[in-house]
Design a protein that fits this description.
Transmembrane segments: 44-63, 84-104, 140-160, 165-183, 195-214, 226-243, 249-267, 279-301, 313-334
Domain Acyltransferase: 19-331
GO molecular function: acyltransferase activity
Protein name: Acyltransferase
Radius of gyration: 20 Å
Distance between the termini: 16 Å
Helix content: 55-70%
Shape: globular
Largest sheet: none
InterPro entries: Acyl_transf_3_dom, Acyltransferase_3
Number of domains: 1
Number of strands: 0
Order of helices and strands: HHHHHHHHHHHHH
Strand content: under 5%
Length: 359
Amino acid sequence: MRAPNPAETASHGADRYVTLDGMRGIAALAVALFHFDQSLVPHGYLAVDFFFALSGFVLYRAYRPRWEAGLGTRQFLLQRVVRLYPLFLLGVLLTTALAVHKVTHGLPFGLDLRGIAVSAMFNAAMLPSPMDMPLFPLNVPSWSLFFELVANVALIVLLFRLPRLALAAICVFAAVNLAPIILDHGSGNIGALWGEYGVALLRTAFSFTFGVLVGTLPQDHARPSGPGLLCFVLIVVVLAAQVSRFSVAAYDLGAILVASPVLLLIGTRVEPGRFIAPVATFVGDMSYALYAVHWAFIGLFRHIRDTLHIPQLPMAAIFLGAMLALAWLCVRWFDAPMRRRMGQWIAPRQTARVPLPNV
């Protein structure tokens, strides 16, 4: 991606937002497919803004009651690190191994071995690398996960304390400053490079704060089922539609400032039917793992496509299916055990009594 952020689970138990799970899963698939073959999902990068909005909503709904009950800043941030770090680290390890392989075999790569080592050290600490233009040159999509952490800090330090009017003011300020930058740049695909960190902060501030603002609104726990299918169609259209009448920049700006917030609002008000719900839950659960590790496998699947001359659409299906299977393996055999161990190390007595949170 929490996801995001693709990292978040829309909720848990009876209050789980299954439509948002499905939306997040489709968004993660769109990002992976955009990186694999941009022609199929030319606006897949817009999923990042939806991730931020969904993350703001989910974290507010999940943690605001805990914060009111006395959850401290340190405890909150430790819980977030436990949730985010294992798969983040796995993505760094996989892409570092790939980078070393390329350099040692004479294949083109933007860094030498020293640059790879320095970048890996910083990136493994969830910090931007000082060695190259991308903030995370080994696993480029990780830039959004870094800003997800920045937003998490802002949530516990500031946003929980602000009234709705102040949250709305932040959204307006970010939107007003973001719009001319995107229009001048020519698209919304901006934020992963060192010189673009200000834009990344604006994208994060608008979408994440809007999600928090939606989280402050009254929620109907008896959400109707069925219309959730419409939400899936809408997000596919938003992320995959070709530009027609509008310029790329205008389209992207509309998606960030209008379509993504509308999709979030719809997703919090309806649930999918019983046949779609299990699929939505599964792709939502796999979304963060898929987002965190897919970058390391793009070259491999492009090589398979080119060597075997597999047509575009079948290859896209193969790639996404393989990424979902890989994500399941990562969650089952790496993320879950690592989170348990980290939780026991951070708070052994609490972890023994209470399951680790999924949000």
